[in-house]
UniProtKB/TrEMBL annotation:
InterPro entries for this protein: Hc1 (IPR010886)
Protein name: Histone H1
Similarity section: Belongs to the histone H1/H5 family. HCT subfamily.
The species this protein was found in: Pedobacter polaris
A Gene Ontology molecular function term of the record: DNA binding
Superkingdom of the source species: Bacteria
Record function comment: Might have a role analogous to that of eukaryotic histone proteins.
Amino acid sequence: MKKFNEVKALVAALEADADKFYNKANSAAGTRVRKGMQDLKNLAQSIRLEVQETKNKA
């Protein structure tokens, strides 16, 4: 559950930069959003593997 909370925190942290990129055309914010989304992807994959492993043990 800890990793799931990290996902929620990461999405919340990216919200301001996403707003700056989409509504104010701030390209540096877009770079931060892209990096954050890559981190999110990696974290989500980690959660998927953990869930699969737990499911297979049961």
